[in-house]
Amino acid sequence: MNYKVVLYALGGLLRLLGFFMIFPLGVAYYYGESLTPFLVSIFITSFTGFLLLSLKTKDEWMRKDGFAIVALGWLAAAIFGSIPFIMDGISPLNALFEAMSGFTTVGSTILTDIESHPKSILFWRSLIMWLGGMGIIVLFIAILPKLGVAGRQLFRAEMPGPTEDKLKPRIKDTARILWTLYFVISLAMVLALLLAGVSLYDALTHTFAAMSCGGFSNYSLSVAAFNSPLVECIITFFTFFAGVNFVLHYRAIYIDKNFLLKDDEFRLYVTIVLSASGLLTFLLWRDMGTGLSDSFRLAIFQVVTVITTTGFSLTDFNLWPDSAKMILLILMFSGACAGSTGGGIKVVRILILLRHSRVELFKVLHPKAVRSVKFNNKIVPDDVINSIFSFMALYFLIFVSSSLILSVLGMDMITSITATAATLGNLGSGFNVVGPMGSFDPIPPLGKLVLIANMWIGRLEIYTVLVLFTPEFWKR
Questions:
Q1: In the chain, where the domains are located
Q2: Residue 70 and residue 190: Cα distance in Å, rounded?
Q3: How does pLDDT run across 78-109, given as a tens digit for each residue?
Q4: Contact between 426 and 103 (Cβ < 8 Å)
Q5: Which residues have a Cβ under 8 Å from the Cβ of 343 and sit 6 or more positions away?
Q6: Cβ distance 117 to 199 under 8 Å?
Q7: Phi first, then psi: what are they for 238, rounded to 5°?
Q8: pLDDT tens digit string along 225-237?
Q9: Using CA atoms, how far apart are residues 424 and 140, in angstroms rounded to an integer?
C-alpha cells in the first residue's frame, strides 16, 4: 500500500468535509447559537486536510490503495465529523457513535433529549447523513479532478454490490450523474414538504434523513411529531424511491419509462413492500383493534421505513404484538435495492439466492440437466453467486458475534439481537432498549465500540473494511 497516496486522498476528503461544515455554521448564525463548535471543527478538519494534501505524489494508485482510501475515508469522516458533537458537550465515544451513525446512514442515536440540542448540531447530524447516503467517496470522485483510474477503484470499493451498474464509461461521469439525480430528487422532497406546511429547517433535516435512508429526526417523536397524514405520505413516497437503485431512476427518466417495471429486483422489492404492508395491516387491525385505515397508514409507513433501513417511526412498535414485530425483524435483514441509499443484505442478493436454490432443486430431479441462474434475463456468473454466499456467511458471523458480545455485557437477548441487526444493516432502531422511542446511550462503552464497527463494516458491505485486517493486504 502506498501511504502517501492514501494520506493525500484523505486530505482531499477532509478538505471537502471542512467545506460542508460551513452550512451548519450558517444555521448557528441564523438562530443566534454559538459559532464556536463549527469554527473550531472547520479549522481542525480543514487544517488537517491541507496538511495531508502537502503529501502529493505522482505514484500510481493501486487496487489496495482504493480499498484503504474508502475504508479509512469513512472512518476519518466519522472521527472529524464528531468534533461538533464533542464541542456540544457529548462524550468523545458517544460523539463518534453519533457521527458514524450519521455518515453510514444507520440512524441509531445516543441522544435522549433531542430537542435540547442546538438546531445547528441537529442540522449537522442530518447533513452528514445526506452526504453519506449517496456516498462521500462518490461525491469525492464527482467533484475532484484528476483521479483517473483511481476513481474506478474507489467507486467499486464504496459501492461493492453483487452487480455493477455504470451509466457512463468514465466513473467520474457516473458519479456526477448519481449525485445530480440525488440532489434533484432531494430538492423535490424539500419543496413537497414546504407545500405541506413544514418549516424550511424541518423540511431540510427530514429530507436529508429520508433520501439517505438514514432516519435522524430533530424530534424525539420522529415523524409522529408532525401529526400530519400528508407529511407521512410524502416521506413514505420519497423514502420508498430512495430505496430503489438510482441507476434505474436515471434509466427510467432518460431511456425507458418502463425500465423500473422490467427490473427483477424492483418487482420483488414492490412485492415485499405490498405483501408485508397487507399482512401487517391485518395484524394491527386484528390484535390491536386499530381501524383499517389507521392500520394501513401505520403499516405502510413502518414497512417502507424498515425495509429501506430508514428507521423513521410513527409509533412505538415495541408495543405491537410479536407477530407484527417479527415482520419488521425480517424486513430489517432484507434491506432495500442494490445501488440505493438503503442498507441491509439487499433484495437482489435474496433474489439470486432464491433462484439459485430453485435451480439446485431442479437438478435434484434432473441431475444431467443444465440450467443457469438468471437476473434480468442475463446469466449470473458463478463467481457472483459464490461472492453472495461468502457475503451472507460473513454477515451472519458478524451478526452472531456482535449479538453475543452485547449479551455478555448485560444486554437482554432482544436488545442485543436487534441492536446488532440495526447497526450492521444500517436500520437505526430495534426493539426493547433500542426501540424507536429509546436510545443506544444505555449500551456499555465496549458494546458501543462493537456497534460503531458494525456501522462501518455494514455500510461498506463487509469486504472493503475486513480486507484491511488480512495479512495479505499489507504485503507488497
A1: 3-242
A2: 30
A3: 999 999 999 999 999 999 999 999 999 998 99
A4: no
A5: 105, 106, 213, 309, 335, 336, 425, 426, 427, 458, 459
A6: no
A7: -70, -35
A8: 999 999 999 999 9
A9: 24
Type of residue at 445: P
Residue reference for cell 442540522: 123
What SS3 string covers the chain?
Answer: CCHHHHHHHHHHHHHHHHHHCHHHHHHHHHCCCCCHHHHHHHHHHHHHHHHHHCCCCCCCCCHHHHHHHHHHHHHHHHHHHCHHHHHCCCCHHHHHHHHHHHHCCCCCCCCCCHHHCCHHHHHHHHHHHHHHHHCHHHHHHHHCCCCCHHHHHHHHHHCCCCCCCCCCCCHHHHHHHHHHHHHHHHHHHHHHHHHCCCCHHHHHHHHHHHHCCCCCCCCCCHHHHHCCHHHHHHHHHHHHHHCCCHHHHHHHHHCCCCHHHHCHHHHHHHHHHHHHHHHHHHHHHHHHCCCHHHHHHHHHHHHHHHHCCCCCCCCCHHHCCHHHHHHHHHHHHHCCCCCCCCCCCCHHHHHHHHHHHHHHHHHHHCCCCCCCCEECCEECCHHHHHHHHHHHHHHHHHHHHHHHHHHHCCCCHHHHHHHHHHHHCCCCCCCHHHCCCCCCCCCCHHHHHHHHHHHHHHHCCCHHHHHHHCHHHHCC
- The sign of the dihedral angle between the CA atoms of 421, 427, 430, 433 is positive
CA distance linking residue 228 with residue 220, whole number of Å: 16
Its pTM stands at: 0.91
Q: Which three cell numbers stand for residue 398?
A: 458478524
**Residue type for position 409:** L
Place of cell 474507489: 154
User: In whole angstroms, what is the distance from residue 261 CA to residue 298 CA?
Assistant: 26
Average pLDDT over residues 339-353: 87
Question: 231, 198 in Cβ contact below 8 A?
Answer: yes
For residue 189, give every residue at least 6 positions away whose Cβ sits within 8 Å of its Cβ, in sequence order, or none. Answer: 203, 207, 210, 211, 234, 238
Cell numbers of 201, please? 429547517
